[in-house]
């Protein structure tokens, strides 16, 4: 069985817009059918709020409504985000990601054994280095 997935913020946005690649949707559906949750980081709520503040959030829902709808979907689970993950995000070996949110997502995935669903080049490269399990969406 494949490890549980963790959507990065862009993947979560594309999931909600139904614009993920079919192979990614199939993998998420299989995970849900097998009882393996797909995890969402609380940092995604922060990032969606930031997008809305910059007027780059494209939804008729408020950021909170959007986030609550996302985590309320079948198979979606809110990931734990304890202080240890924040500290680990600052200590990632050989990580070139400069965005703190990406580092938090990477640290969360490493802590819990998640596969990150992303198109973010820094996270994909980190996966290629063997530090992170990734699925390109």
Ranges where pLDDT stays below 50 over 5 or more residues in a row are none
- Through-space gap between termini: 19 Å
CATH level-1 class: Alpha Beta
Count of beta strands: 5
Helix and strand string, N-terminal first?
EHHEHHEHHEHE
In CATH, the architecture is 3-Layer(aba) Sandwich
Helical content, roughly? Answer: 40-55%
Radius of gyration: 14 Å
Counted up, domains total: 1
CATH level-4 homologous superfamily: 5'-nuclease
Helices, by number, come to: 7
Q: How can the largest sheet be summarized? A: 5 strands, parallel
* pLDDT averaged residue by residue: 94
**Could you give the order of strands across the largest sheet?**
3-2-1-4-5
β content, as a range? 5-15%
In CATH, the topology is named Rossmann fold
Structural class: alpha/beta
How is this structure best described in words?
The protein has helices at residues 9-17, 22-33, 42-53, 63-71, 83-89, 100-112, 121-128, and strands at residues 5-7, 38-40, 76-78, 115-118, 133-136. The protein is an alpha/beta fold. The chain has one domain (5-136): 5'-nuclease (Rossmann fold). It has a 5-stranded parallel beta sheet. The model has no long low-confidence stretch (mean pLDDT 94).
């Amino acid at each position: 069985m494949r490890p549980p997935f963790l959507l990065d913020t862009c993947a979560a946005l594309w999931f909600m817009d139904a614009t993920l690649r079919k192979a990614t949707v199939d993998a998420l559906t299989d995970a849900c059918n097998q009882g393996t949750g797909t995890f969402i980081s609380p940092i995604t709520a922060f990032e969606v709020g930031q997008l809305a503040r910059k007027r780059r959030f494209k939804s008729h829902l408020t950021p909170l409504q959007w986030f609550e709808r996302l985590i309320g979907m079948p198979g979606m689970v809110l990931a734990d985000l304890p202080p240890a993950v924040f500290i680990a995000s600052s200590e990632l070996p050989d990580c070139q990601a400069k965005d703190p949110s990406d580092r938090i997502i990477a640290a969360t995935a490493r802590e819990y054994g998640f596969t990150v669903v992303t198109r973010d080049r820094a996270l994909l490269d980190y996966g290629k280095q063997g530090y992170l399990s990734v699925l390109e969406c």
